[in-house]
Amino acid sequence: MRVLAFLDGTLANPEDPHIRVDDLSVQRGDGIFETVLVVGGEPRELRPHLDRLARSASMLDLPEPDDEAWQRTVRLVLDQWPSETECALKLVYTRGVDGTPDPTPTAFVLASPIGEKIIRARAEGVSVVTLDRGIDPGLAERAPWLLLGAKSLSYAVNMAAGREAARRGAEDVIFLATDGSVLEGPTSNVIVARGRTLYTPPATIGILPGTTQAAVFRGAERAGWTTKIEPLSVEDLHDNDGLFLASSVRKLTRVHTLDGEQLPDAGAVHAELAKAYEDVYA
Ligand SMILES: *Cc1c(COP(=O)(O)O)cnc(C)c1O
C-alpha cells in the first residue's frame, strides 16, 4: 500500500504516471527530499525535517518551501494511512519542468511501508564497510556549490556505494574523508558510544545534520548520557563500546561487523539507547 498527495492538496494514485519526462529531477537529479518516519500516525521530527528541507532548498536556490502546505499535505496523506502501521513519508521537491523561465517546483508526499530489510537491520544490526568519499573535511565550507550537506535528489553516488558494499559482502557503508576522518553513511549518520558518552561528527565537515542522530542524543541525555559533536577517526570506529547508524527509517541500527571484522557485542548498549530514543516519543 502507498498513498500519494501533491502539495496543492490533491490525492493521486501512486500507480499512475505523474512526473513529466522534462522535469529537472528526472533530467538532472535537480531537487531535494526528506524521509520522515511515521509511528502510530505521528510523523517523527517533522519540524526538524521541514527546517532541513528549507535549508536544502536555500542551498540549491530553490523557492522557499511553503511550510504550511507541506504540513497540510503530510496530514492529508496520513489521514489515509492506517495509524497502527509504521510508514516512511517521502517529501520530494524538484526544480520543476525544464525550459520554463521560473519553473514551479514539483512537490509531493508519498507514504510507503517500511521495507523488510530495514526492519530486520533494526533488530539484528548490519555489516558495514568503510569507503573513500574523496572529500576533505574543509571542502564543504570552501566549495558550497558541491552541495555537501544538502539532502539532494542526486544520490547516484550514494546508491553506488551501497552496491559496492554488497559486492564486498556487506549491507551498508561508512564514508571516510581523504584524511581518514569519519563522515556519514550514504543515508545515515554515524554514532559512536564510549563509556557513557555518545559521539557524532560535526555537520560542518560536509555531512547532513541528522534528525535521528539529534533525537537519539536528546533521548540519551535524558537517560544520563553525555553527548559530544566532534571529529571521529577510523580508529574510533574500532575502539568503542558501540557503533551505530542513525536515520529516520532505520532508527538506531547497530553495526556488528566493520570491514569484515566482527565488533564486540554491543547489544546491551544498543537496547538502552534504542529505548532512550523511543522514550523521546512516549
Ligand atoms: C537522510 C540522511 C541522513 C539521516 O538523516 P535523518 O534525518 O536522521 O533521516 C544522513 N545522511 C545522509 C546522506 C542522508 O541522506
TrEMBL record:
<dbReference type="InterPro" id="IPR043131">
    <property type="entry name" value="BCAT-like_N"/>
</dbReference>
<comment type="similarity">
    <text>Belongs to the class-IV pyridoxal-phosphate-dependent aminotransferase family.</text>
</comment>
<dbReference type="GO" id="GO:0046394">
    <property type="term" value="P:carboxylic acid biosynthetic process"/>
</dbReference>
<protein>
    <submittedName>
        <fullName>4-amino-4-deoxychorismate lyase</fullName>
    </submittedName>
</protein>
<dbReference type="GO" id="GO:0005829">
    <property type="term" value="C:cytosol"/>
</dbReference>
<dbReference type="Pfam" id="PF01063">
    <property type="entry name" value="Aminotran_4"/>
</dbReference>
<dbReference type="GO" id="GO:0016829">
    <property type="term" value="F:lyase activity"/>
</dbReference>
<dbReference type="InterPro" id="IPR043132">
    <property type="entry name" value="BCAT-like_C"/>
</dbReference>
<dbReference type="InterPro" id="IPR001544">
    <property type="entry name" value="Aminotrans_IV"/>
</dbReference>
<keyword id="KW-0456">Lyase</keyword>
<dbReference type="InterPro" id="IPR036038">
    <property type="entry name" value="Aminotransferase-like"/>
</dbReference>
<dbReference type="InterPro" id="IPR050571">
    <property type="entry name" value="Class-IV_PLP-Dep_Aminotrnsfr"/>
</dbReference>
